[in-house]
Amino acid sequence: MTLNNELKNWYVTNFKMFEEGLNGESKSKFHLVRKDALSKFRELEFPTTKDEEWKYTNISPLLNYNFRQPVSIRLKPEQIEKYLFSTKDFITLVFVNGFYDESLSSVPKEIKGLTVKNLSAALKENSPICEKYLSRFAPYQSSIFTALSTAFVKEGTFVHVEKNAVIEKPIQLLYLTATGENIITNPRNLFVIENNAQVKIVEIHKSLEENVNFTNLVTEVVVEGNAIVEHVKLQDENLKSFHISRLEVDLKKSSNYASYNVSIGASIARSDINARFNDEGGECTLNGLYLAHENQLVDTHTLIDHAKPHCNSHELYKGVMDDKSRAVFNGKVMVRKDAQKTNAFQENKNILLSDDAVVDTKPQLEIFADDVKCSHGATIGQLSKEGLFYLRSRGFSEELARTTLIYAFASDVVHSISISEVRDKLEEMLAEKLLK
Amino acid sequence: MLEIKNLRVAINGKEILKGINLKVNKGEVHAIMGPNGSGKSTLAQVLAGREEYEILEGEILFEGKNLIEMAPEDRAREGVFLAFQYPIEIPGVSNTNLLKNALNEIRKYRGQEPLDAMEFLTLVKKKMPIVEMRQELLSRSVNEAFSGGEKKKNEIFQMAVLEPKLGILDETDSGLDIDALRIVANGVNQIKNENNAFVVVTHYQRLLNYIVPDFVHVLQNGKIIKSGNKELALELEEKGYDWLKEHEAEFVAAK
User: Fold this and answer.
1) Least C-beta-crowded within 10 Å: which of A279, B56, B146, B172?
2) Residues A133, A137, A141, A147: is their CA dihedral positive or negative?
3) Residue B121 has pLDDT above 50, yes or no
4) Which residues, in sequence order, are CB contacts of A243 under 8 Å at separation 6+?
5) pLDDT tens track for B21-38
6) Record: contact A400-B101, CB cut-off 8 A
7) Half-sphere exposure in the Cβ direction for B162 (13 Å, CA)
8) Where are the alpha helices (DSSP H) in A331-419?
9) Taking Cα atoms as reference points, which of A376, A318, A377 lies closest to residue A352?
10) What is the pLDDT of residues A182-234, one digit of tens each?
11) ipTM of the complex
12) Residue ranges of the domains in chain A?
């Protein structure tokens, strides 16, 4: 516990320096939220495996480091271009070590109905939308990592799509960590999509070097009536790093939100994904794919809260686990008393490629309404021997047969991504990962 | 082409094949008949390299090469093809993908250049009529949601594209209605030529009305107890396998 306190003091001390670095912005209204979050951070404890929500995920390796505030560095366009989709076809924001890099980014001067900018710029301008929603959905009162993230909110992406605006160009957000040992970044995203509006957003988290870094990400998404949002996240950090993320989605009447959460990197990757139907007729898709090897641990906790009737949720998470890797999947679906005519489907499928890989999967349905259709399923298996023999009997090498079967298993999670460049790249990346 | 010498095979410690001898020359069709549990399918699977079986004794020579020591993929590349009794469904892998990879792996093994997309498509198009293969099945996942007949047709279609030297049909007729049976058998007859050979494993004689064998072997209790020409199949159809049990007794007594 003393270690715990020392570590908390470390971050509290760092906060003073962080505050000084904010210059005038520390006088903004939002800074009161930061300070409140910091005081909550002091009160909360880092979770242990005694906490039900962290039962299978021991984060003590993360607590061994005093992560520091990053320093800004300059990268050349050619150092990052391979991680980006065409900047002609995408609106592009690039962050390096937590700092927005305007020269690497490519944001059109004006797109009708769209505000997209780095968060610090939005805060500086006192954007009323930003002030209204930022930190409203992510509960820093109960999560120490979210409290830490909220106290140190500085940079990230603010997207606001106005009523009826359909944004054709997808938005890509590239979050890179580069030079710097043991740095922490707390990227913060806020996406507000107004009535009848549509947008597609892709975020990529990548480390360029092999340092131990800590990304503590929080994303809040507000999907207003009849709006449609597609949100892809690729987490491809190095195998020494830590990636903790929280995604909060607030769905209004007849809105439609789809998340594709692909997790490949990090030594410990934990995602908390919470979606709430706050009105009738909503649609929510939570799809995810995790590939892990060596000693990686990937933990996904999702909650879909059917608070209102006539909403549909679909959830498909797949995992491919090799070596001594571990996966945790906890999928909670809450159907409240009023939420009649709910359809909720959840599936978690895993393939273990080694005897030492472990998956702990726990579907959790809590249903308080009586006229609903809900189903869940979880499987943990190995590659089908019959399938392997069949392919080999046709001339496939054993390696190619294995890769083909794993790829076929995994790739259907990303098939329904509508941005073809993103889907193709993810499929290609999968094939590459599996073939190596 | 194929020579099996005194082959003894067990699975889970139980001996299934108890000394099989068989010689197949190119251009020939051999039918292996026998009641359920006689070891017919075991023989087919062992030839294709199924690893769960334990070879206790004997030899399998394919064009002079020892097949037993070869991985299943190398047998395929050498020209052995098994049409499965129960073709496997592989969700997420299209028929086209399977065929293209299979063909190019085989070509690579033989030192040939891989086919490009156009050449491959041309070849596939040419082979489709052989089993009246519908175009839309090609882009679908291997055998997924195929009817029983479509699965068997797909096996013969793969064989048509991969052009093996030795085709082994493992109860390809089982579960087929008469129309599908005719299409499948017709397909095999179109693939058949003087340079390849077939081993047709079947329980019933009716397939042999369409694929006419040069030799018929009766397998019972892990041994070939009688060999003959196509008339033997008709005789079996008429008299049943029990007739041979007496025959087997005589056979053993005569030894």
Assistant:
1) B56
2) negative
3) yes
4) A205, A214, A215, A217, A235, A237, A263, A265, A266, A268, A269, A270
5) 999 999 999 999 988 889
6) yes
7) 37
8) 385-392, 398-411
9) A318
10) 999 999 999 999 999 999 999 999 999 999 999 999 999 999 999 999 999 99
11) 0.94
12) 2-279, 385-436
What is the distance in angstroms between the Cα of B107 and the nearest Cα belonging to chain A?
10
| A86 secondary structure, DSSP code | -
Q: Which residues from chain A sit within 8 angstroms of residue B44, using beta carbons?
A: none
CA distances from B1 to B28, B65, B167 (A): 10, 10, 12
pLDDT value of residue B247: 62
Domain limits, chain B: 2-254
**Element at A35 (helix H, strand E):** helix A30-43
Residue pointed to by tokens 């990529």: A204
* CA distance to A100, A123, A152, A160, per residue, from A128 (Å): 21, 9, 20, 11
Count the Cβ atoms, other than its own, within 10 Å of residue A5: 11
Report yes or no: A396 at the B interface, CB cutoff 8 Å: yes
Q: What is the dihedral of CA B194, B196, B201, B206, to 10 degrees?
A: -30
For residue B254, count CB atoms less than 10 angstroms from its CB and return exposed for 0-12, middle for 13-18, buried for 19 or more.
exposed
Per-residue pLDDT reduced to its tens digit, A278-287? 999 999 999 9
pLDDT band at B248 (very low <50, low <70, confident <90, very high): low
pLDDT band at A23 (very low <50, low <70, confident <90, very high): confident
DSSP β-ladder status, B197-202 and B29-33: parallel
Q: What is the pLDDT of residue B174?
A: 87
Please state, in angstroms and rounded to a whole number, the distance separating the CA atoms of residues B191 and A71.
70
Report percent pLDDT > 70 for chain B. Answer: 96
Q: Report how far apart, in Å, the C-alpha atoms of A151 and of each of A127, A164, A192, A221, A310 are.
A: 19, 34, 21, 19, 37
Contact assessment for residue A209 and residue A178, using Cβ atoms and an 8 Å cutoff: yes
**Is B87:B151 a contact under the CB 8 Å cutoff?**
yes
Distance from CA of A388 to the nearest CA of B (A): 10
* Residue found by looking up tokens 């053993």 in the block: B252
Residue B69 phi/psi, 5-degree rounding, is -85, 0
Average of per-residue pLDDT across A289-317: 97
Structure letter (DSSP) for residue B112: P
Contact status, residue A287 vs residue A260, Cβ threshold 8 Å = yes
Out of A14-28, A412-426, B144-158, which region has the weakest mean confidence (pLDDT)? A14-28
DSSP 8-class letter at A106: B
CATH domain B2-254 topology: Rossmann fold (3.40.50)
Q: CA-CA distance, A130 to A135, in Å (whole number)?
A: 9
DSSP-derived secondary structure for A177-219: E-S-SSBEE--EEEEEE-TT-EEEEEEEEEESS----EEEEEE
The residues of B whose Cβ lies within 8 A of any Cβ of A are 48-51, 71-73, 75-77, 81-82, 84, 87-88, 90-93, 97-98, 101-103, 105-106, 109, 141, 158, 162
